[in-house]
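This part of the workshop introduces the protein records we will be handling. A record pairs a protein's sequence with a compact description of its fold. Comparing a sequence with its tokens is the quickest way to learn the format. To make this concrete, we reproduce a full record directly below:
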Amino acid sequence: MHDPTPDTTLGSFAAVLAGELPGAWTSTYHPDRGGNNDHDALTDHVWDMNDVADTLAKHTVDHCAVLTRDDGSRLFVADPLGHGEGYLIAAMAPTDAPAEAFRGVREPDGIAVDADPFSAAEDIHYDLLPRYDKALAQVRTNAVRLTTPPAAEPEHVVMTWSGDALVVDKPDRDDIVQALTEAGFALDAENDVFVLSGDDSAHQAASVRAAGHRLSELGVGVVLRNPPARPALGTTAVAPPSPPVTSPHRGR
């Protein structure tokens, strides 16, 4: 006949352990309650690919405890579930991070500790928690990266040399058009471009600086570009050399 009285030895150990760990931790004991329990939901979040995971895969958990830090980090506490004394302590994965955020992050594998909560607290503090905190930081960084949209490509105005003049394709934005015209660029309606004459090089340079300053205020960059080089008449562009042919054999 099933004994309805839960074994609180593990619960007592976990409660004392929570008070000995660095930071603010609370302990929650999860008894068997006649087989009606949430142990599977808890063990599914054990963040381990070593001895603890192997033990949980081979044995059924009939009671356990969860220690929770004030920042949401959790530790799973269970009996060895086999021969031996002491307890198993394992990190628990955060539940608010997407699965992709765990890619490339090493599991902070759990440890076995003695039944003494004071020595167990030292083992956890110096062994498990540093690895757990490192893994948590990596997952949270990955999660932020996954949810942050890529930065928009900054807009640029390209000024291309055409002889002594600078030519800019007519922008779509009216504020950019205004910045160019105020700096001395004139619209060539036939070609749908703005042109800055090079009759006076000093005046032209001052106009470019003025346009660049105003465009920068609008969050727009300026790129000065030479026209594409053209091959001389009667010559043929040299084709790039063919890539070397390598043997299909690959060394190890």
